[in-house]
Amino acid sequence: MWFGIIMAGGSGTRFWPLSRELYPKQFLSLDGGSSLLQGTIDRVVPLIPQERLWIMVGPKHEAETRRILRLAEREGLPARVFVEPQSRNTLTPLAVAAACLVRSDPDAVLAVLASDHLIAPQEKFLALLKQACTIAQEQDAILTFGVRPTRPETGFGYIEMGELIPDESKGIFSVFQVKNFVEKPDRERAERYITGKKHLWNSGMLVFRAQVFLEELRQYQPEFHKNLETYTETLKTESESRALADLYANAPLTSVDYGLLEKSRKVWTISTDLDWKDVGSWSALDEIAEKDEAGNIVRGNVVSFHNENCILYGDKRILATIGLKDLVVVDTDDATLVCHKDEAQKVREVVNELKSRNCIEAQEHRTTHRPWGHYTILDQGPNYKIKNVTVNPRSRLSYQMHLHRSEHWVVIAGTARITLEGQEIFLHVNQSIDIPKTTRHRIENPGKVPLVIIEVQNGEYLEEDDIIRFSDDYQRQTEENPTGSGTGEKA
Q1: Is residue 360 domain-resident?
Q2: Could you tell me the pLDDT band of residue 487, with boundaries at 50, 70 and 90?
Q3: Which of 257, 276, 295 is the last residue before a domain boundary?
Q4: Rounded to two decimals, what is the model's pTM?
Q5: Is the pLDDT of residue 31 over 80?
Q6: By C-alpha distance, which of 401, 442, 453, 445 is closest to 420?
Q7: For position 241, what pLDDT does the model report?
Q8: Same domain membership, residue 188 and residue 119
Q9: Residue 123 sits in a domain of what CATH number?
Q10: 317, 411: one domain
């Protein structure tokens, strides 16, 4: 069978401040439609049904990924959300997926896709994917998707094409041996690649048979392959989470390109002229968004006068700009970015600096999404924090307790069902309740409209990891920590 592996563990640092570590760009909508992740799922399901999709995420992104899947309301079994215990680049999750799938299907073919690409037209992409899966099913080859370059791009890696390979599958796309992988070139080399017509953009998408991938892993990453075999054997007797954590603790911190593809002699590339866009930084919007007569991309609450070739994004506050040229200006409710388009790739340096200063703005927005709804931080200071909390209809938070803070809730809209130390209380608009620290409590929305409350927290410690869970609808407890304490997210 054919399986889809969607890599959705990135942090999207170059799209800060719209993208944050806890809410990266794969969860954003950049073209006015669905999120990038949902768009990737929609793109592949006509060929590979969602029950054969694996979405590879980190622990911080599991809840939002599951929320997006629930919102899709597609018939059939849901995609599998595979949670990596820690970040180990791309080689490790692909190896684990191959090792797991080959146990149930020795002929499993894996199609590896990124969660942050925009690809058109859909029909041509499906034809490309079908051809690649057919070849992988019949040949001992690892196939890459190479996109014919349309400009001297310095932000992409390239593939140098070797000999043409006869394709017995009768597909419409040409297949070549990979002669060489090339890192992101400078402008001069990129221009030579365009005129030489021997290089393709490396899209990062792959198709291979699991057995072939594991055989190459055995040859070029023997120690890791041995650990992988131990992991799959351990699954027969121990819990998967513990065995997976042990595997990741000793896994190589390398990409599949460095760790395998650049070493293997079984790598082929399919040349395509798809309209493919790797949405890597703010400047990528130039290719996907509509522009005004002066070449500006204007989104949100923006007042624009006499600007030229700019990207202007306003959120809640009014963003007013006059006489700007070739700039990116992005304003959110807690951070503002201003940079030249030519410097947009360097936004990650800002994020790294914020992390070194332990700034929360690198981690999350003022508005944070949860499986049950979302909350927005309205104000905070020493020993207090004020939030606007929205609970979706028929949803509830975990049954929980805080050790270091008390809370006061005021209902603004909807009806709240409160459980406080086993006692059930209903609150309506303009009613309130105190939640002392160390008391077990839960808030639930039993109605058909969103429940909105204002929450005032008081205490000597107000971070989100001050939570002990006793029960949870979203399975956010773990074997090592059955109460969910210290998970770093509210309820």
Answers
A1: no
A2: very low
A3: 276
A4: 0.85
A5: no
A6: 442
A7: 77
A8: yes
A9: 3.90.550.10
A10: no
CATH of the domain at 383: 2.60.120.10
Q: Does any domain span residue 479?
A: no
Residues 340 and 430 in one domain: no
Domain match, 269 and 334 both: no
Q: Are residues 192 and 309 in the same domain?
A: no
Query: 270 and 297: one domain?
Result: no
Domain housing 242? 2-276
- Residue 482's pLDDT is 36
Residue 64 has pLDDT above 50, yes or no: yes
Residue 165 lies in a domain: yes
Going by pLDDT thresholds of 50, 70 and 90, the confidence category of residue 13 is confident
330 and 386 together in one domain: no
- Do the domain assignments include residue 491? no
Q: What's the whole-number mean pLDDT along residues 157-173? A: 87
Q: What is the pLDDT of residue 383?
A: 95
Q: Is the pLDDT of residue 154 over 90?
A: no
Model pLDDT, residue 195: 92
CB 41 within 8 A of CB 54: no
pLDDT at 286: 85
Q: Answer yes or no: do 339 and 194 share one domain.
A: no
Q: What is the 3-state secondary structure (H, E, C) of the chain?
A: CEEEEEECCCCCHHHCCCCECCECHHHCCCCCCCCHHHHHHHHHCCCCCHHHEEEEECHHHHHHHHHHHHHHCCCCCCCEEEECCCCCCCHHHHHHHHHHHHHHCCCCEEEEEECCEEEECHHHHHHHHHHHHHHHHHCCCEEEEEECCCCCCCCCCEEEEEEEECCCCCCCCEEEEEEEEECCCCHHHHHHHHHHCCEEEEEEEEEEEHHHHHHHHHHHCHHHHHHHHHHHHHCCCCCHHHHHHHHHHCCCCCCHHHHHHCCCCCEEEEEECCEEEECCCHHHHHHCCCCCCCCCEEEEEEEEECCECCEEEEEEEEEEEECCECEEEEECCCCEEEEEHHHHHHHHHHHHHHHHCCCHHHCCCCEEEECCEEEEEEEEECCEEEEEEEECCCEECCEEECCCEEEEEEEEECCEEEEECCEEEEECCCCEEEECCCCCEEEEECCCCCEEEEEEEEECCCCCCCCEEEECCCCCCCCCCCCCCCCCCCC
How many domains does the chain contain in total?
3
Q: Does position 401 have pLDDT exceeding 50, yes or no?
A: yes
Average pLDDT (449-478) is 88
**Domain termination residue (choose one: 354, 384, 410):** 354
